[in-house]
Amino acid sequence: MFFNTYFYKPNYTPVQILTRSWLMLFSLCLLCAQLAQAQATTASINGTARSDKDEALSGATVAAIHLPTGLRRSTSSTSTGSFTMADLLVGGPYTLQVVQPGYRTLLVTNVFLAAGKEAQFSFSLNTEIVAVGTRRADRTALESAVPVDVIDMRTLAATAPQTDMTQLLNYVVPSFNSTRQTSAGGSDHVDPANLRGLGTDQMLVLVNGKRRHTTALINLLGNRGVGNVGTDLNTIAANSVDRVEILRDGAAAQYGSDAIAGVMNINLKSDNKGGNVLVGTGVTTQGDGLTTLASLNKGFKLGQKGFFNLTLDADHRGSTTRDYSRDVFSRPVFSSDQAQENAALAANGKAYKDFEQRNGDARIDNYRGIFNASVAATDKVKLYAFGGYNYRRGNSVAPWVLPATQSLDIIESIFPLGYQPNINTRIHDASGAVGTVISLGPWSLDVSHVLGHNRMRYNVDNTVNASIGVKSPTSFDAGGFRFTQNVTNATISRLFPKVLAGTNVAFGAEYRNDHYQIEEGEQNAWGEFDEGRIGAGAGSQGFLGFAPASAVIGSRSNVGGFFDLEADITKKWSVSTALRFENYSDFGSALIYKVTSRYQMLKPLAVRAAFNTGFRAPSLQQVLYRQLTLESSASGVRYSGIFNNQDEVTRAAGIPALGPEKSRSFSAGLVLTPLPSLSFTADAYRIDINDRIILSGLFGPGINANLDAALFRYSIDRAQFFTNSVDTRTTGLDLIANYQHELGRGSFTASAAANFNRTTIQALNVPANFQTLQSDDNPNTNYVDPRQLSLIETGSPKSKLLLSLGYELGKLNVLVRNTYFGQVSYFDTNTDAANDFGSYYLQFNPRTVTDLMVGYKPLKSLGLTAGVNNLFNVFPNTVSEAARNGRPPGGFASVEVFNAYYQARFGKPSNLPEGRDIFPYNPVQMGFNGTFVYLKAAYTLGL
After folding, report:
1. pLDDT at position 21
2. What is the pTM for the complete model shown?
3. What is the 3-state secondary structure (H, E, C) of 146-187?
4. CA 914, 916, 922: angle at the middle one, nearest 5?
5. Burial grade of 32 (CB within 10 A; 0-12, 13-18, 19 or more)
6. Measured distance CA(826)–CA(788) in Å, rounded
């Protein structure tokens, strides 16, 4: 029938029939050729996946992504580590990805497959070695006896909305918290951060395993880290970092002072080729807070196996303002009488918008350079060096100086309608480390020296020194401070593979020297002159300069020795112990220890526990800091402010010299890996800290005879001191789960993490001279300020939960992450002289922030990410809302009852909480900028 249909028609001529016959034959031949070629248009891959110890990896996920089409094929390795993928498209390029929990993900790019041929691969995966919490060179995060988070900064820096290290980590580590401060002096320019709800100075920071210096700044304002000195993580470019390891356990016995809450180790990139160019920009949906980033990372080869890795970057962050308003009973412009206020505004042709208070993020510009290098001098000697420099310019503001409340401080010929002082900072931060690792047979000797320096100076403009009068300048060099640290360390270690199931021994010594200096500002920034109006304020308004009486120079040193032993009793059971002794030149010595154990009960289940004692030496800044404020009075110039441990006022008042904080902590947890694609850890902990250092209340005459005599002798009105006054207990629970699974033609990932913590005050250590103050009914004169106690107990979120869901399909990937910030509460400040009831207890209810990130790779070397931080524009409670959530001062039943009483007593409504109109939000939880949209592009060099 086919023949008749195709060839035979009554009207076909013989020529037509012959032609059609040849066409049919040619078609059949072509079809056969195509069928034959189809037999060879697919390709296959097979190979093995093994560890760097040459052990077969069972269940490893091997994926092949065909970049032109985005098609993804995957398989899992067998118990022998072998795998096979057939029927793959010919050509390429392909990217091969090998993933196994506990090992670093392996990527092989630019793979091409030939038709009918089988490509052979032998993959060797490096274990996800952690350098923190252990001195063994072969421990993975899941094998650790204490919990360690490992954060891949290569991916995070290139795709996440944030650019600063503190903000990047705030959204991926539940036990880590950092919130940008506002109208908090220097703290606006250096983001404080903490771990497990403890102090910013109770987390030790390492870079490449070496101690990082702290900032020169001591936080005195704001609501995070008050009285503490932390490490400025934002001096390190995120694009220079390979990964961040966060040890969530006390480790002072291993690393020395400060490691009470835990240790953060920042590992710099060590590539000897390639690199990337990273650019990004973003802005809030209200049009402010513009952020830009430009960063270059490049690796260079040194010798056969050495490297020199360099990162240069610059970023800008614009200032923000939210929901500004003015209330005549809080911060009026001309008068607290509404009619007079309206008349004065109209007469001057002004409205409240002309006196807008900047109340959000400070403006910041960063310029950074970071390097990391290593080279083999001989077969047994390796040299290494790393370091960097950060220059930062910051601009924040103080509250407006307005005629309504400070008319004596306004010079009509300069600022006839008031002024908003600008607080500008210049921060120089530099560090450098050099060292060598020498192989001494089976022993290894690591000798290093690290130098760190941080300097911060203030320049105040758009303001006056009213006591100078009409000749007052409007810009002032207000002085600043600097901190320098030198650390020399020597560590000897050896692994004895045949002692038990493997035993590592390490011991060594360390010498550290700290130097701190407060630099005085120019006289116009702090001086009191008689050229202005009577009673005019002295010094630059908005930020008083450091006077010669505040200037100080001091240093201290300490020497320590340590011994560290880690032993695998069996292949399933490991134990470790660490012992450390340190002696400080200014307060004495400390002897501390730590013990840990981990037992592999079943193949998918291990349990672990640790107990340690620890200490935190008072920072040199806390020991030496003083800032004296000049106050003019009828009897002449007098002082008030913070007095350090060396001042005669402090000794006369009976304030004990600062000593170390002492801690005891234990943790217990489990590690569960029921599937190669699923891991789960749970760790409970308790941390007891005695003699925590806080800033005392502000005391005037009438407290005790000794203090009265000292105040009178040195013409001082009020004094404040650093003191070891609080014992605390922190309990908590960390939960972390990670899951990855092939879904459809793509890969699905999910991670969930949570931290729950609670800190309670166990005891107050009040000197005998001040006992009556702590027990009286006046909260404004307590020896231990209730606000500081509340910041310690409830100033960090009670809980923090993270849930991230991601899907990758070829060139496209999508990530949604949710961050739940728990409740925060603390006492508000109280600067109203008429209010002797105390402060509002503010309660900020929990909030959840949702981020969306969409990535696309148009080229194998180019990745683009567009996304939104805080997709649903979530804000924390306003201060007024927090006051209603909490409780009013003085034990009143409600806000309404307190306000009615205040109105009856003073004839006006209460203007508490402090600054609720011009500062409607406090910097708690996730900040208050709202929705932020951004774009990032990362171009990989060398592909």
Report:
1. 46
2. 0.86
3. CCEEEEEHHHHHHHCCCCCHHHHHHCCCCCEEECCCCCCHHH
4. 85
5. exposed
6. 8
- Give the residue from 562, 659, 567 showing the smallest Cα distance to 617: 659
Q: Report the C-alpha gap between 62 and 561 in whole angstroms.
A: 47
Q: What is the pLDDT of residue 719?
A: 87
Which tokens go with 286? 């209200």
Q: Is 834 helix (H, G, I), strand (E, B) or coil?
A: coil
pLDDT < 50: residue spans in the chain: 1-10, 14-15, 17-19, 21-26, 28-40, 135-139, 632-635
For 332, the token pair is: 């009026």
End-to-end CA distance of the chain: 59
d(CA 377, CA 305): 11
How many of the other CB atoms lie within 10 Å of CB of 180? 27
| Gap between the Cα atoms of 751 and 535, Å rounded | 61
> 773 and 783 in contact (C-beta within 8 Å)?
yes
101, 57 Cβ separation under 8 angstroms: no
- Kindly report, as residue ranges, where domains of CATH 2.60.40.1120 are found in the chain: 42-125
Amino acid at site 474:
T
Note the helical H segments in 369-433.
Answer: 403-406
CA neighbours within 13 Å on the CB side: how many for 269?
Answer: 29
- State how far the Cα of 878 lies from the Cα of 824, in Å rounded to an integer: 13
Task: For residue range 632-647, list pLDDT tens digits in order.
Answer: 444 455 667 899 988 8
CATH code of the domain occupying 42-125: 2.60.40.1120
Phi, psi of 497 (to 5 degrees): -65, -20
How far, in Å, are 649, 690, 774, 778, 783 from residue 769 at the CA level? 14, 21, 11, 17, 10
Nearest by Cα to 941 from 859, 853, 858: 859
What whole-number distance in Å separates Cα of residue 368 and Cα of residue 234?
A: 10
Q: Tell which residue, 218, 193, 53, 45, has the closest CA to residue 129.
A: 53
Q: What is the Cα–Cα distance from 820 to 756, expressed in whole angstroms?
A: 11
Within 8 A by CB and 6+ apart from 446, the residues are: 435, 436, 437, 438, 489, 490, 491, 492, 493
Tokens 């991230």 -> residue: 804
DSSP state of 699: B
Q: Cα–Cα distance between 181 and 188 in angstroms, integer?
A: 5
Question: What is the 3-state composition of the chain as percent helix, strand, coil, each rounded to the nearest 5?
Answer: 15, 45, 35
Residue among 62, 25, 244 at smallest CA distance from 676: 62
Find, among 492, 374, 390, the residue nearest to 433 by Cα. 374
**312, 900 contact by CB (below 8 A):** no
Helix (H, G, I), strand (E, B) or coil at 572: coil
Q: Which is nearest to 331 in space by CA: 397, 401, 398?
A: 401
Q: Are 645 and 666 in contact (CB under 8 A)?
A: no
